[in-house]
Amino acid sequence: RLGLNGRIDWGDAQAPRWSGHADLVDADLAAILRLSAGPQGLAGRLDLGLDASAAGNSVAGLVYGLDGKGLVAVRDAALSGIDLAAAGRLLADPGLPGAFLEGLRAAFAGGSTAVPAINATFAIADGIATSTDLRLATDTAVGTGGFTLDLPRWRLDLGLDVGFRAHPDVPAVGLRFDGTPSASVRRLETKALEDWAAARAA
After folding, report:
1. Please, what sign has the CA dihedral across residues 140, 145, 151, 155?
2. DSSP-derived secondary structure letter, 172
3. Neighbours of 4 (CB within 10 A)
4. What are the backbone dihedrals phi and psi of residue 90, each rounded to the nearest 5 degrees, phi first?
5. Digit-coded pLDDT (tens) for 28-61
6. Measuring CA to CA, which residue among 22, 20, 23 is closest to residue 6?
7. pLDDT tens per residue across span 153-200
8. How many CA atoms lie less than 13 Å away from 11 in the CB half-sphere?
9. CB 138 within 8 A of CB 165
């Protein structure tokens, strides 16, 4: 369900100012990401609230001048390409550091994870959306971080630090996405976890 309301203020400026509010409720996230050339591999039900304004005579001008704020919530989600439950099982019995890290990288490169909730608020300035309170929660793990989405350049920079509920003493795994949203490069940051595994095996 989509609800929209807005106004156009011509004023004395050369370009009109557009402002509005949008509510998107119980939308199919996978379909929206596919239609918008967004990140793939994430499905679920999406709720989005947005207040935004921009001035311009063209689509490009409006995007570059977009300001506002909003919130996003995803429920009953499925994330493909990451198996956090498998990573949690590895932490219960790490074994030797080399085999443990190999298994961990495999868990962050395949399988899937059920994600009951993803939440974030964001602010938009000059067409760039920024969040510092992104939170992803599963039965096994909690990820916290943020993102920057540059709309004019269509570039995403997203980072999550993933910690495991049953192992609060274990360092978090850094998960980073950078590049075009539909084909971003995924990187794992495991240095702290590697040090922990080595110290445990010593």
Report:
1. negative
2. P
3. 10
4. -60, -40
5. 999 988 887 777 788 999 999 999 999 888 888 8
6. 20
7. 999 999 999 999 999 999 999 999 999 988 888 888 988 988 888 888
8. 12
9. no
